[in-house]
Amino acid sequence: MALLTGAGLVVKLVLILLIFFSVVSWAIILFKLFQVHRANSESDRFMDFFWKSKRFDAIASQVDRFANSPLTVLFNEGYGELKKVVNDHGPSEGGALSTDLGGIENVSRALRRATNSEITRLEKYLTFLATTGSTSPFIGLFGTVWGIMTAFEGIGKTGSASLAVVAPGIAEALIATAIGLVAAIPAVMAYNHFQHKIRVLINEMDSFSTEFLNIVQRNIAGK
Amino acid sequence: MTTRYPASNTNFSIFFIVSIILHLAVLLLMIWWTKLFPFQMTIQEAYYVDVVNLPVAAPRSGSPTQKGNDNEAPTPPPRPAVPENMAVPAPPQKSTRTTKQLPAVKSHEKTSTPAEPDEFAERMAKLAGKAESQQQEAALERIRRKMTTSGSGRSGMPGASGNEAGSSYSAYIQSRLKDAFRETISYTSKQPEVLIRLVIGADGRISRKKIEQSSGDRSFELAALRAIDIASEKFPPPPGHRDFEGVFVFRPQGISNGGKL
Questions:
Q1: ipTM over 0.85
Q2: B133 and B200 belong to one structural domain
Q3: Same domain (yes/no): B107, B180
Q4: Residue B108 located in a structural domain
Q5: Would you say the pTM of this structure is higher than 0.90?
Q6: How many domains, chain A?
Q7: A12/A17 Cα distance (integer angstroms)
Q8: Domain annotation covers residue B36
Q9: Where is the MotA/TolQ/ExbB proton channel domain (chain A) (predicted)?
Q10: Chain segment B169-203, per-residue pLDDT in tens
């Protein structure tokens, strides 16, 4: 603790900044762990439910149970668009979309838009983790360099270069690098982990979109 | 257009608070840990040993007393260089001169080798005589040199002659110091040199002795001071009943007069 309190002003500011980075990045890590875990588990459950169900309106009535899954959002978007397309064409054509494929195109666009918005939502705050991972070692290094500079100034003033004079200043300076690394290492690890998890979710969303469009087209073609 | 987003976006602040609590917990843990096991920087003093000037006995390098004082070293005995080729006949008049010097050798040679007895005996006698004369010359030279270094004709006694008062006296003191110092040398370093200023009072006793320039070799300086103590027991009073002051340079090879400086 004496190392933290005895440091100079610049080193203290650097330490405060690094601690702030660490706090925020850990908040993001915990938040993302929670978010990605819920998204994964609810997606699995939603897919089970989706394949068991016969009708879209039955799924739509139950979809609130899987509120945290990105697939739910996709389904809602696609189903809403499909309903609109069917309503616009009306029952005059017998509810058929077979003649013009514009309705399927609309549904596909809606699904792609929902996928993009879900990717944005999942990747939110991850850039902060990347920034923390790449910059906080340098910020810590800056604090260390500054601390060593002031330590050498002190040595020049006292005129003695014994270990007892040099060591505390350098130890105070080095704690900035240590805290920078402490902040950076979990951030980099979490960033890579979440990147992988989110890529898996994006793949799931893409395959769900394709599946949804297939089902829509199959039903329309069958009619 | 988006029907709904999951509600988890709103509760990021909860995780922020959780993270702050986590960091505070780590900080408290660190404080508790440092309280439990106080962090102390123990700085050990480094001791450096000067190996070069360390007085280490080195018998192989030889005692400095053997190296010093070349003029006191005894001249090597003449070699009995017996020439192998004895065929060269010596002049007959020389043989008559040398026969009386070594009659025993000659008689012995005569009995052993009857063929060339006279020539061999002549040769041996000549060599022996030559060696003897060389030895005598060397001894004379040694005495002469000793007399010149002591400053006055009488070695071992302070001379009152000379323009500058005390000049020969200092030479005398130097020689006495040299004799005493040779016995007390107990150093092993290579080239120590210590300048000692001596002030000898009118009663012949040392009133002040001061190391003007240290050699860095403690044992050598102690030896030099001990030599002064030994020699000062027999110092006669300086001439003219005036205080004598002089600087002497102590080296392993001997003592030289540093003058008044």
A1: no
A2: no
A3: no
A4: yes
A5: no
A6: 1
A7: 9
A8: no
A9: 102-206
A10: 888 888 888 877 766 654 445 567 788 888 888 87
